[in-house]
């Protein structure tokens, strides 16, 4: 389990650059203290617009802390206010600030980097969200707050993304598990097994957009299709197990559609030869109980489907 003691949280907050001011009160029950040396988080910069939640992808060292505390008659706005003030004191500037339906309700909540129950409880009818950014000598630093409540408890999650060094290519490939293959071996894997994980595509929890840039696996797939004009393929999007199945199936399809669009619009693949579908969290590669496992599960696979 990922539950941590309060002493661990407070010790971590003494590290240089940590958001020491955002510590849980003594009456709090700490439910999570997660750290990643390098990862990415989708930071909402607006509310749900009817189709998607606009986000920016923040990369770096990630810290997630969650706790619950006595409500004592407070509203979610009153829980958020002192935390917001502390972030502003630390030099962070607001990016997006919203509440429940004004954020986009269900669609917004599951587009954020919010931990699952029971680590973080979110009442879809009563929550508040804040995303912030400050500039440092090493690059931008981001912090987000998700605040909600039950009848007697207030719930808080603080997520922070600080600048960090990028991993090696070998680390990136290995993070996708045994099913991932180097781009040069993609054609061989498709010929032999009929499927492969597109190893260099990374998605944060709740995010579907591909970052700008080139993807060697997609270039290799486009080349494979050019050399095999009788083949068609299907892209299958997958998610981790954060959130409900229906939302994750929709999210996984959007991931596959984003990859399909890149192949068609950027690499010239015929739209008739590539389809997209989503499996949600129904086909994990690894355990969803760890961040490493969840990262492996957030992926897009390619499957050879038919001969024309």
From TrEMBL:
A Gene Ontology cellular-component term: cell outer membrane
Domain OmpA-like intervals: 190-308
Top-level taxonomic group: Bacteria
Signal sequence, renumbered to the chain: 1-20
A Pfam family matched in the record: OmpA
Localisation per UniProt entry: Cell outer membrane
Main location: membrane
Swiss-Prot/TrEMBL keywords: Cell outer membrane, Membrane, Signal
InterPro entries listed in its UniProt record: Bact_OuterMem_StrucFunc, OMP_bac, OmpA-like, OmpA-like_sf
Name of the protein in question: OmpA family protein
